[in-house]
């Protein structure tokens, strides 16, 4: 049975959404096309009608995951426009975010995987990282764009590193301490 163009476009978006979540949970190489397509409710044969390769899907799924992360930052800042950085720190450096394997930060979940991917996946991550830096830069705007940019890079690196480390350890007290220490450092860096 032939699929309409509208249905094919919807199927493509479904595959991208599912891949965005499953890649964050299992890594780019942690899930095969069969299981990925099954997760989307489609057959493996449908994959090649939508994408040229798994790397093409990885690029699209990375973009989607990073857009989702940016959306979460926007939602957080809208909740507390008087202290947008505090709101982002509150959700990003939380135990809940630490446990969000499928919907959490793609930079944390896939950063080391993305470093081993091709230039197109890296470009998607670079664009997402730059978008995060721009948002952080607006939170801490100073007289010097360079000073704001440097602080934004230090803050993002601290937050990503803290969530990554908190996911690697078994000890929940240590995990919490890593997140708390990072939150304190981020606040200090922003205030300096």
Protein model, in words:
There is one protein chain. This protein is an all-alpha fold and 192 residues long. It has a domain at 59-191: Orthogonal Bundle (Tetracycline Repressor, domain 2), CATH 1.10.357.10. 78% of the residues lie in helices and 0% in strands. The protein is built from ten helices and no strands. It has helices at 5-26, 33-39, 44-50, 54-79, 84-92, 95-99, 106-114, 119-139, 145-168, 172-191. It is elongated and about 60 Å long. The chain starts with a helix and ends with a helix. It comes from Bradyrhizobium forestalis. Residues 9-69 form the HTH tetR-type domain. Residues 32-51 bind DNA.
User: Biggest β-sheet: count, sense, barrel?
Assistant: none
CATH topology of the domain at 59-191: the name is: Tetracycline Repressor, domain 2
Radius of gyration: 18 Å
Termini gap: 63 Å
Question: Could you list the spans in which at least 5 consecutive residues all have pLDDT below 50?
Answer: none
CATH level 4 superfamily of the domain at 59-191: Tetracycline Repressor, domain 2
For the record, what CATH class of the domain at 59-191 applies? Mainly Alpha
Provide the CATH architecture of the domain at 59-191.
Orthogonal Bundle
| Record field, number of beta strands | 0
Give the quaternary arrangement of the chains: single chain
Order of helices and strands: HHHHHHHHHH
The portion of residues assigned to helices is: over 70%
Strand content: under 5%
How many DSSP helices? 10
